[in-house]
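Researcher: Batch entry, complex prediction.
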Amino acid sequence: MTRSVSEHQLAVEQLLGAGGYARAGRGGGAAESLPLTAALGRVLAADVHAPVALPPFDNSQMDGYAVHLRDLGDGPAAAGNGEPEGHLRLHVGAPVPAGSSPPPLEPGTAVPIMTGAMVPAGTGAVVPIERADPPRFPALSTGDGGQPVVQLPAGTPAGTFIRRAGSDIAAGDLALEAGTLLGPAQLGLLAACGLAEVAVRTPFRVLLLSTGDEVTEPGGPLGDGRIYDANTTLLEAALRDAGAEVLRTRVLSDDPEKLREALDTPPAAEIHLILTSGGISQGAYEVVKQALSGSGVEFPGVALQPGGPQAIGTLGGVPFLGFPGNPVSALVSFEMFLRPALTALTGAPAPRVALPARLTAPASSPAAKHQVRRGLYRDGRVELIGGPGSHLLNALAGSNALVHFPVGLSEAAAGDEVTVWLIGPVPPPAPPVPAPTHQELPS
Amino acid sequence: MTRSVSEHQLAVEQLLGAGGYARAGRGGGAAESLPLTAALGRVLAADVHAPVALPPFDNSQMDGYAVHLRDLGDGPAAAGNGEPEGHLRLHVGAPVPAGSSPPPLEPGTAVPIMTGAMVPAGTGAVVPIERADPPRFPALSTGDGGQPVVQLPAGTPAGTFIRRAGSDIAAGDLALEAGTLLGPAQLGLLAACGLAEVAVRTPFRVLLLSTGDEVTEPGGPLGDGRIYDANTTLLEAALRDAGAEVLRTRVLSDDPEKLREALDTPPAAEIHLILTSGGISQGAYEVVKQALSGSGVEFPGVALQPGGPQAIGTLGGVPFLGFPGNPVSALVSFEMFLRPALTALTGAPAPRVALPARLTAPASSPAAKHQVRRGLYRDGRVELIGGPGSHLLNALAGSNALVHFPVGLSEAAAGDEVTVWLIGPVPPPAPPVPAPTHQELPS
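Model: C-alpha cells for the complex:
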C-alpha cells in the first residue's frame, strides 16, 4: 500500500477532523475566555463584531487648527493647483486636547486641536500647525490681553486631516473572523474595540509516547549500542511551537504488551491525538506495529523521503499517528502531515511560508518519491545542508528550510528553482533602503 | 533634527547595547538553566559542544543483513555497472536489534540487523532485507533444524547503508553557537547529545507605560471624546511575541508630574528598557515630552511614515524609548526599530522574513520619507490594505505584511516590485507537488 504525499495529507486531515477536537466545537474545539494578552498566539473561537466604530468620532489627524467649514471658502476648487489661494485671519479659540468633548466651532474662530482629539461640530478641516503663522500654539492662557489671532492658508479642501468616525471600521461590522490567529495587531484591535477578554479555542492536546529499547532519556549515562531519545523532545517542542498541549509518556521497553498497556490506560485529560515515533517499519522488532496489529491501525508506505513509513488509525476512538523513528523523518512527518492538519482543524499554527529558491549546487532525488532535504535559505537561494540521511539531526539544526524535490524530479542543477518551506530564522537581508544621510533629506 | 530610518535603527541598537541587559552577560544577558522543552524559543547562552559523537557508533541505515567486509568480494569494482555480479550464500547468525551491542561478525555469516542498530565489528556493508532471498527475516528461534541460509546479491560496495559514527557531528565539535534561537530541531539535537538541561539567556525586560488622558482601559465605558487604549495591549503582545518580559504600568493622566513620579519609582525587577507610546509630538499636551524635558531624552524626527516622531534616551541609567501614539505608528516603530535591536542584542526574535513582492495596484508615497504601508502578501504579490493613515488598526489586523516604500520613491505602478516584511500568517500556497495517483507511483 503506497500513498502519495497528498493522499496521506488528506488522510491525516480527515483523521483529526473526525476526532474529539472537532466534535467538541463543531469543527473548532471548545472555547475559553482569556484576558487579551493571555490570548497571544491563540485562535478566535467566534466572530467578533466591532461594538464601537473606529475611530469612535471624527478626530484630528494632526496637531493644528480646526477651521469652520464656512471659513474654508473655495477650498475644493483651489485644491488642484498645489498652492493655496491667499490667507485666512481667524481668532484663536479654546484649545481641544485629545480626550475632551469640545463645544461647536464658531465661524471666524480657529481652535488649536491635538492629534486624535474630537473635532468640534462645524469643523471643515484641520490645518497643521506648521502651516500656521505663527507656526506654534499661543500660550494656553492669554490673560486679558485680547484674543490671539492666527493666519492660515486659505483653500484647504473640506475634510482635510479629519479622520471620520467609522473610517477604519463601522460599529457592528465584522472585526475578526472565528479562526483568526491572534497576534499583536489583532489583540490591539480587540482592545481598541473596548474588549478586555476574548473567547479562544481550547488547545489541541496530544499524548506523545516514546518507545524503544535502544533509546535512553537525555541526562543519564549512555550504554553500548544505545542512543539518546531526541524524538520526544523534538516532537514535543514542535507540537508546543504549533500551539498544541503535550502530555508526554515514556514506555520503557520494546515490549508490545507494555505499549498496549500504556495505550489502554485512560489519560488524565481528554486527548485529541496519540502520537508515537519509531517501531513502524519493516524490521523484526517493530514495537508499535506489533502492539497495534489487529487494532485497525494501518501502516501505509508514503512516497516521501524521509518519512516513508507511516502509521494511521484510531485507538479507542482517539486519532492515532505513528511517525518513523529517525529524528529527521519524525520532523519531516510532522511538517508534511500533522502541522498542516492542525492548521486546517484548529487555525493554529500559521502555515509555513513557502517560497521559490534557487539551488546553490546540483542535487539528485529519487524520481518515485517526494524528497524533502534540509537547507539554508537566504536572499532567494538555498544551500543544501547535510545529505539526504534521516539521522542527520545536527545538519537539520543548522538549517532554516525544508527543500522540496517533488515526484518525477531526479536531477536538479545549480540555479534551478525549487520550493522551500521556512522552518527557522532567515538571516536578515540587507536594509530595504539605501540609508540617506542628513544632507540628502529635505529639512 | 531629522534622522534617516537607518540612523535611528543604529541609535536604538546602540542604546540597548549600552544598557543593563548587555552589561549583565557581556553582550548576551544573564543565563539560567532550563529543562529542554522549557527552553523552546529561548536563546542559547553559551556554545554547546557535542559531548558524544552523532551517531555514537557505526549503525545500520536499513533493516537488512550485515555482511562481513571479506564476503563483499569485488564489491567496489562491481559498483559502477548498476547490477551486482552473482550472489553470495551466507549462514544467518543471531539478529542484532537496535539497542544491543553485538559480537564481532564472522566471515561467511550474515546477521539480521535493524535500522539504527550497531553494526558488528567486521561488517563491510548492510544489504537491505528486500534485496535478500528470501526477502524476510527467518523466525528468530530456529530450533535444532540447522542454521538458516540467505542468498544476497554480491558486489555491494563497502560502507553501503552504514552510518558512520560521528558522520553527523564528531564528539567535541561545536553543535550550537551561543546566541542560537532554540526551536524543535535545536532542542532535539541537544537531547540527542544527552543533555537534559540547557543554559539560556534570561529574557529582556520592558517596563511598558501607558499614558494619556484620552485613553480608557478596555472593558470599561467609553466617555465622549475618548478612545480605548489599544497601544498597551498591542505593544505588550508584540514584546511578548518577541520573547521579552513585560511589566505594564498605567499612568492615569496627562499630568507630566504623575509620569515623572512613575518613572522615578524603582521597579520591582531589573528593567532593561522603559517604553511609552504617545505624547512625544508637536502638540500642546505632549505628556512624555513635557515630563522628560531637561532629562537628556531626545525627540528626533525620523524620515518614516508612520512613526516619524520618536523619543530616545536614558532615564536613571535605563534605556528609554517613546513611540508615537497612533496604534499603527506604534507597531511600525516597534517593527522598524525595537524588534531588530532586540534580535541584535538578545538573539530573539527571529528577524522578519523580507521578500520581494509585486504590487497589485499603483501606490504613491512621500519621496522624502520611508513609508511603511500594510498589505496582504500571497504568492509573490502584495495588495495594500487600507490607506496610509496611522489610525487604521482594523486594516492592520487584516494584513500580513509591512510594505516598504523607500525614500526617493513617490509613485509605484501595479506590478512594480517592493520589499515586504511578513508579520502575519501567509495563506498556504498550492501544494508544492502535483499529487500523483496510486497508479502513477512505482510499486
